[in-house]
Structures are given as C-alpha cells and as structure tokens.
Design goal:
Layout: H1 33-55, H2 61-68, H3 71-103, H4 107-122, H5 125-133, E1 141-145, E2 151-156, H6 157-160, H7 163-188, H8 192-200, H9 205-235, H10 247-258, H11 261-290
Antiparallel strand pairs: 1-2
Helix pairs in contact: 2-11, 3-4, 3-7, 3-10, 4-7, 5-7, 7-9, 8-9, 9-11, 10-11
C-alpha cells in the first residue's frame, strides 16, 4: 500500500488516547509592549501640553474670553464666511466650465482651459490678489460691446473693483483652476461604458450627465472639493494685505493696539477651528448622501 493511500474502511486512524485534546489549552492574547509604551509616552506628552496650556499665564485666557465674542471679531468672522462662500461658489461654477472645456473634443477649448489652469496654479494667490486690487493701474474704464467696434456701456474700474470685490475675484479665479481639475478627475472616474450604453438606449446627452455621470462623479469630487473649500476658508487670511476687515486682519489690528499678541492669535485660531469643524461635519453628511447605493 502506498504512503498516500487512504486507510482501510472501518479501521480507526488513531486511538482515542492518541488524539490531542485542545480544549484544555489556554488562549493567550498577543502582547504589544511597544504599543503600550507609545501610548504611555503620548499620554504623558499630551498631559504636559494640556497642563501648560491651562496654567501658563502667558496665554492670558481672560483676555481671550474678553475678545472672543466682541462685535468687531464677530463682524470679522462674518466677512471671512462671505469671502469663503463667494469664492467657493464662483470658483466652482467657473471650474465646472473649465473642466468640460478640457474634456471637449475642441483643441482650441482644451488649450484655453489648460492655459488658464496652468497660469493660475503657477501664480501665488497673494500676487493675484494684489494684481486685481491694483487693476485700475491698467484699465481706468471697462467697455462692453462689439470687439474692435463700438461699446454699449462702460464702467469706471475705480468704483467697480474695490477691496472686497477684488478679493472675491482673486479668490474665485484662483479656486477655479483647482476646482476644474477636481471636477475633471471626478468625471473621468466614471466608467465610459455606461455612457456608451446610455447613448445606445437613446438617452439625451444632458440627461446622461445629470443622471449617470454626476451622481457617480460626486463621490470622487466631494472629498477633494471639501479640502479645497477648507483651504480657501483658511486662505482668506491672505486678503489682510488688502486691509479687508476679515478675522486675521482685525486680530492684527487689535493686538497692534493693546500688545496682547498671543491671546488675540488664539481668538483667531479657535474661530478657524470651529468653522473648519462645521465644514467637516457638512462634508460628512454630503458625502454620506451621495454614497448611498455605493456602500453596503
């Protein structure tokens, strides 16, 4: 009989005494000493930081409490929210147009969109803001009409492009370059075979976009788009160079008068953390809405 052949039927392979009883064995959990060491070290560092944050008189928490909800700070927070909202809305509206220009079959439209994205991603935001703020040096008046022909109406740029409008314009145009690539990446993530099947069924192109492409593309677009919105929200502090009364500018003005730099910076820090947390919570619920049917 070969070594690989089965034992004869009816013959026991091993006696009961020879069988091992595993029920008596004790299960010992895997120990992770280095993990516990890392936990202890991290806990000690966190405790030391929290203790210093509370007991160090240099933080001047009483000054922080006095200025945190003052009228000036709340007004500055509202201006920061407005800059974020208008910059995001206009930026993504233009970004969607640029994204579909890049996805078009027209070499001219693709070239224009690519050049725009390349230029605005290459120039620092602060340079763009200062450029739009000083637009009146280049154009005293803006005429609208037939190109190289008569104009229908015109505007004085000094009265049209103020500090606030220049900030919104700069933030929106800068945001559009990044939004275009986010939207384009989301659309490209959708399987092209679905569009071919929809076209074979005679579904109109606009309906394909609205019912097939966008619901799936949003799952890829939203995480990156939310990160861009949060970055833009924090980036509004750059407009302080234009003397716009947003949060960081007003904090600078106040601590320039009273010399309480650290507690005033903490006022701005906590407000940024609060509003970023609100945006992150909104991101979670919007992503959960668009992920329905994709997760189990």
């Amino acid at each position: 009989m070969s070594l690989t052949s089965d034992p004869p039927i009816g013959k026991a392979t091993a006696s009961g005494a020879e069988r091992e009883d595993y029920s008596a064995l004790k299960v010992v959990p895997v120990r992770h000493p280095w993990r516990w060491a890392a936990v202890v070290v991290t806990a000690v560092l966190v405790a030391q930081f929290a203790h210093g944050l509370i007991t160090n008189p240099g933080w001047e928490w009483n000054v922080f409490a006095d200025f945190f909800t003052t009228r000036t700070i709340l007004k500055a927070v509202w201006i920061t929210i407005q800059l974020t909202f208008y910059g995001t809305a206009l930026g993504f509206a233009l970004g969607i147009v640029l994204a579909f220009m890049r996805l078009s079959h027209s070499p001219f439209l693709k070239s224009v969109a690519f050049t725009y994205i390349w230029a605005f991603r290459s120039i620092p935001l602060i340079v763009q803001l200062l450029f739009w703020f000083n637009l009146t040096y280049l154009y005293k008046r803006l005429d609208f009409g037939i190109p190289f022909g008569p104009g229908f109406f015109s505007f004085d740029t000094a009265g049209l492009v103020g500090a606030m409008s220049a900030a919104v314009l700069g933030l929106a145009l800068h945001q559009a370059a990044y939004a275009a690539e986010i939207v384009r990446g989301g659309v490209l993530a959708v399987d092209g075979g679905q569009l071919e099947a929809a076209a074979a069924l005679g579904i109109p192109r606009l309906r394909q976009l609205r019912r097939i492409v966008l619901p799936q593309a949003m799952r890829s677009i939203l995480p990156n788009a939310a990160n861009e919105v949060i970055s833009l929200f924090k980036g509004t502090s750059i407009v302080s160079v234009m003397a716009i009364g947003e949060l960081f500018y007003q904090v600078q003005v106040i601590y320039g008068r009273n010399g309480r730099v650290v507690p005033l910076l903490m006022v701005a820090t906590v407000w940024y953390i609060i509003l970023t947390t609100v945006l992150s919570i909104a991101q979670y619920y919007v992503e959960r809405h668009f992920s329905r049917g994709a997760t189990r």
